[in-house]
């Protein structure tokens, strides 16, 4: 298995570990398909409310498997459907958290960018080195990154192919959190995932839906999505129970 899954139903969290250590977790087609299949299974498991994607201490994912791409032509790249697989991950309705130790290059960085929260450490290195191979990112690297950090910083990474460290990534707003040490990256990410999993699940889903759907829309259209999702939540048991509990506590 190239993706190992550990469900922690006691805290509502699943951990998906990329498992090609001999290739620094380079993303071949089999690994990508396994990752999508595991997330599909998690979507149907109500006991799991957040998922952590991680690699090992050396690499989150060192990029796409060059052996898969080196001799491919345009038709073969299209037939592989790699971008479509990434689109399915981005559409996953439950929160995804990336615990990024070591390298996250190329497709590995793009995978981390699909996640809602990204935690790294001092040893984290993020980069898009495709230009050095005569190609360019094709899994969202030119589009999601520029929306996250702006055109100039994104172009600096894209046109140089050089990586940035965890401290810079946190300063630029790529990392949600910079853990104090590399050993703390995965525990801190699981801790964050457990805190999210403890929240009302429909509220979590509606927030992710509003952010995801509205991100690339004009403001007025995005605000309509926000209003729709917010109003839906006023007809849920969680909303009634939690608001009643809040009012009861305030009366004491």
Description:
One of its GO terms (molecular function) is lyase activity. Belongs to the enoyl-CoA hydratase/isomerase family. With 252 residues, this protein is an alpha/beta fold. The protein folds into 2 domains: 3-198, 2-enoyl-CoA Hydratase, Chain A, domain 1; 201-250, Lyase 2-enoyl-coa Hydratase, Chain  A, domain 2. 48% of the residues lie in helices and 15% in strands. It has 12 helices and 10 strands. The protein has helices at 29-43, 66-69, 74-80, 82-90, 107-113, 144-149, 151-160, 166-172, 185-197, 201-214, 219-232, 237-251; strands spanning 3-8, 13-18, 50-54, 59-61, 96-100, 103-105, 117-120, 125-127, 164-165, 177-178. It has a 6-stranded mixed sheet with strand order 1-2-3-5-7-10, sandwiched between helices. Strands 4-6-8-9 form a 4-stranded mixed sheet. Strand 2 (13-18), helix 1 and strand 3 (50-54) form a beta-alpha-beta unit. Helix 1 (29-43) runs parallel beside helix 4 (82-90) and helix 10 (201-214) runs antiparallel to helix 11 (219-232). The longest helix has 15 residues, at 29-43. The chain is globular. The mean pLDDT is 94.
């Amino acid at each position: 298995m190239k993706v190992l899954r550990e469900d922690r139903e006691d805290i509502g969290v699943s951990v998906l570990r990329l498992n090609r250590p001999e290739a620094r977790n380079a993303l071949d087609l089999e690994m990508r398909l396994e990752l999508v299949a595991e997330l599909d299974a998690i979507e149907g498991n109500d006991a799991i409310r957040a998922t952590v994607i991680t690699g090992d201490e050396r690499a989150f994912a060192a990029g796409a498997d060059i052996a898969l791409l080196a001799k491919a032509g345009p038709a073969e790249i299209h037939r592989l459907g790699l971008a479509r697989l990434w689109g399915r991950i981005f559409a996953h309705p439950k929160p995804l958290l990336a615990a990024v130790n070591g390298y996250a290059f190329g497709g590995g960085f793009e995978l981390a960018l699909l996640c809602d929260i990204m935690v790294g450490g001092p040893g984290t290195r993020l980069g898009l080195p495709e230009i050095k191979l005569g190609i360019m990112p094709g899994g969202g690297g030119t589009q999601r990154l520029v929306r996250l950090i702006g055109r100039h910083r994104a172009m600096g990474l894209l046109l140089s192919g050089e990586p940035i460290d965890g401290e810079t990534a946190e300063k630029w707003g790529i990392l949600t959190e910079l853990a104090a040490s590399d050993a703390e990256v995965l525990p801190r990410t699981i801790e964050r995932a457990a805190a999210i999993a403890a929240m009302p699940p429909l509220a979590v889903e509606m927030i992710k839906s509003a952010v995801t759907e509205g991100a690339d829309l004009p403001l007025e259209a995005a605000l309509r999505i926000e209003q729709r999702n917010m109003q839906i939540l006023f007809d849920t048991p969680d909303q009634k129970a939690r608001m009643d509990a809040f009012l009861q506590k305030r009366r004491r």
